[in-house]
Write a structure and sequence with these properties.
Number of domains: 4
Number of strands: 35
Strand order of the largest sheet: 18-22-23-30-27-26-24-25
CATH architecture of the largest domain: 2-Layer Sandwich
Low-confidence stretches: none
Number of helices: 20
CATH superfamily of the largest domain: Bira Bifunctional Protein, Domain 2
CATH topology of the largest domain: BirA Bifunctional Protein, domain 2
Mean pLDDT: 89
Shape: globular
Helix content: 25-40%
RNA sequence: GCCGGUAUAGCUCAGCUGGUAGAGCGGUUCAUUCGUAAUGAAUAGGUCGCAGGUUCGAAUCCUGUUAUCGGCUCCA
């Protein structure tokens, strides 16, 4: 007999070799219906797995991450089976489950079209109806290689060859279809109730551009049709929030053919930018920063000295001036170095915090461009902090606090990653060790959860990256804190210590917004275009019901304008419903409707975004409420 | 950069198998003066991304090119 401990702590005994499915059945019929896999002694297993050892057992359903994985993974096998039925000779790449579904990579002479997806989906539904059981078998290495060679699956052969020697090679079979797979899987294809193929894409074999490009089919699946519908609805909602669409509709920015990756900002987008920058300056003043501005174009020698010419050349735009090479800055640091070096510094000046809203240009691959999120020119809210070794931890902690307060203002969830030494890097391992440890210590002292991102540091130093989560669940790197002892050496930075000797400062590079452009993109999606009043391009719209109230409307607007409020009057001879509809679509936070009644007694009929008609109120009260919302930067 | 899709008026899109361009919104003008998400009428606006080619004839077919969208990170 074996002893099984269930999630609730209760223990049950079963004869050795009882399948997980039977154990599940004995616990609850309902659970058995929803079970997709088991987790025995922390190992995920099939429901058909015969339990031979005692230990804790979790029954996984679609609600569990690992259960979802098995469910989607089986879905990908069904996809591959359908494709091989419809397009015989198609070679299989890999077909894993991913966060929102699954994919399978195929090598086929036939180029798949969106119409094919419909046919494949129908074939998949057939396979689901056939309710084929999935059977696991294992083979030794030679037999497995032979098996896939015979079936004409070169990619599977390559995968087996790369498997570690001691690992069990398992196959899963459903009907005529067999795939190399570690599992686990749901017991039969009939369990996949609702499946949908989403898109087609090219993908390099094993993710390397040196390899052949395969055709990838993306899909998703759910145990219930309603769940699929809910998922599709969420995708639609995400599309409605897409900053590229909203940016166009709300006239915030545009990207034209004439400047791929180089965004234009319209007046309304500039309002948001300027508000963000104003707040940024206010915040940095509080945190003891100074501000500078360095040139966009600087000569080649500088970039050679900083190491960019050697390490970052592929991403840099260059130009020639009077027969001399120049580069358009991809980073602000070398300029800041020159500023630091332009005068002598005492230890009394340190830490010296120098900020710069610097416009940088980087050559990104054309296929990587994406609205404001991935561009070829953007404004970094940069700063360089020059300090002594003793000041490192406090300064890093200060920057973490600054960034946290900035993100908190918008209510953004974020997580932190620590990126370590990349392949292409300057400096010794000891230097990297020292700086990486310093960053880590600050994180530990701040009691922050973080994940290590190996090899993703800047070429001059390790970094702490802040990743925001947007409305699509994608994460975007925004803030970053980089610790650097390379640049101060390259530029021979010094300060005079208490001892009257010259010493080498250590430097922090850091950004909080990251890129103002990207941050605006993220904000747009976050608020679905309904920016809080302090950021809204137009904060108030005064809507006279007829021409008779035009003078009163203008008078109100003037008063608001004098107090710095961004206000417009809609004096067109349209019906009030039409004016309201338009203001609503522009996502204006406050509408002041004025008719004869309001004109006569000096009031307004307030309509607030998201709240609708608030009735008649005194103008002074509304004005004060608006001013308060702006100055407190309320998330309204 | 690579794979696939897309490119028609300011915006969103229609235009079947090739016969020389259409709607709605928006703009302008006029009428209307209206109480909480679209008043009516008239009118202007496009060398169909660009360059070649096939054809009597190309928005439509072919080639190239540019931009854009999705993907190329999730590893049996």
């Amino acid at each position: 007999m074996i002893k099984i401990t269930l999630k609730d702590g209760s223990q049950r005994e079963y004869p050795e070799g009882t399948p997980v499915a039977e154990i599940t059945e004995s616990i609850s019929k309902g659970l058995a219906k929803n079970a997709v896999a088991g987790k025995l002694n922390d190992r995920v297993v099939d429901l058909s797995y015969s339990v031979k050892e005692s230990g804790p057992l979790d029954i996984l359903t679609f609600e569990d991450a690992e259960g979802k994985n098995a469910f989607r993974h089986t879905s990908s096998h069904i996809l591959a089976q359908a494709v091989q039925r419809l397009f015989p000779g198609t070679k299989l790449g890999i077909g894993p489950a991913i966060s929102e579904g699954f994919y399978y990579d195929f090598d086929s002479l036939h180029i798949f079209t969106p119409e094919d997806l419909v046919k494949i989906e129908q074939e998949m539904e057939k396979i689901i109806k056939e309710d084929l059981p999935l059977m696991r078998t294992s083979k030794d290495r030679e037999a497995a290689l032979e098996f896939f060679r015979k079936r004409g699956e070169p990619y599977k052969v390559e995968l087996i060859q790369d498997l570690p020697a001691d690992v069990e090679i398992s196959l899963y079979q459903q009907g005529e279809f067999v795939d190399l797979c570690a599992g686990p899987h749901v017991p039969s294809t009939g369990r996949i109730k609702s499946v949908k193929l989403m898109s087609l894409a090219g993908a390099y074999w094993r993710g390397s551009e040196k390899n052949k490009m395969l055709q990838r089919v993306y899909g998703t699946s759910f145990p219930k049709k309603a769940d699929l519908d809910a998922y599709l609805f969420r995708l639609e909602e995400a599309k409605r929030r897409d900053h590229r669409k909203l940016g166009q509709e709300l006239k915030l920015f545009t990207i034209m053919d004439e400047g791929p990756g180089f965004p234009f900002f319209y007046p309304k987008g500039m309002v948001i930018r300027n508000e963000l920058e104003n707040y940024w300056r206010q915040l940095h003043r509080q945190w003891g920063y100074q501000e500078i501005k360095t040139p966009v174009i600087l000569n080649r020698q500088l970039w050679e000295r900083s190491g960019h010419w050697l390490n970052y050349r592929d991403n840099m735009y260059t130009t020639v001036i009077d027969e001399e090479d120049f580069a358009i800055k991809p980073m602000n640091c070398p300029g800041a170095m020159l500023v630091y070096n332009s005068e002598m510094h005492s230890y009394r000046d340190l830490p010296l915090r120098v900020g710069e809203l610097g416009l940088v240009h980087r050559h990104e691959l054309s296929g990587a461009l994406h609205g404001l999120m991935r561009v070829r020119c953007f404004t970094q809210d940069d700063a360089h902090i020059f300090m002594t070794q003793e000041q490192i931890t406090d300064e890093i902690k200060g920057v973490i606090d600054l960034i946290d307060s900035l993100y908190g203002l918008f209510g953004f969830p974020y997580h932190v990653e620590l990126s370590t030494k990349p392949a292409k890097a300057m400096g010794t391992d000891e230097q990297w060790e020292l700086t990486t440890k310093a960053l880590e210590r600050a994180l530990i002292e701040k009691k922050m959860d973080y994940k290590i991102n190996p090899g993703d540091g800047a070429f001059y130093g390790p970094k702490i990256d802040f990743h925001l989560e947007d409305s699509l669940g994608r994460t975007w790197q925004c803030g970053t804190i980089q610790l650097d002892i390379q640049m101060p050496e390259k530029f021979d930075l010094t300060y005079v210590g208490e001892d009257g000797q010259k010493h080498r400062p250590i430097m922090i590079h850091r950004v909080a917004f990251g890129s103002i452009e990207r941050f605006i993109g993220i904000l747009t999606e976050h608020y679905a275009g309904a920016f809080p009043t302090w950021l809204a391009p137009v904060q108030v719209k005064v809507l006279p019901i007829t021409e008779r109230q035009a003078a009163y409307a203008r008078q109100l607007a003037d008063e608001l304008f004098k107090d710095g409020i961004r206000v417009e009057v809609d004096e067109r001879s349209e019906k009030i419903g039409y004016k309201i509809r338009e203001a609503q679509m522009e996502k204006i936070p406050y509408m002041l409707v004025v008719g004869d009644k309001e004109t006569d007694n000096g009031t307004v009929a307030l309509r607030k975004r998201g709240e609708g008609d608030k009735g008649t109120v005194s103008f002074a009260d509304v004005k004060n409420a608006i001013l308060a919302a702006i100055s407190r930067k309320t998330n309204d």
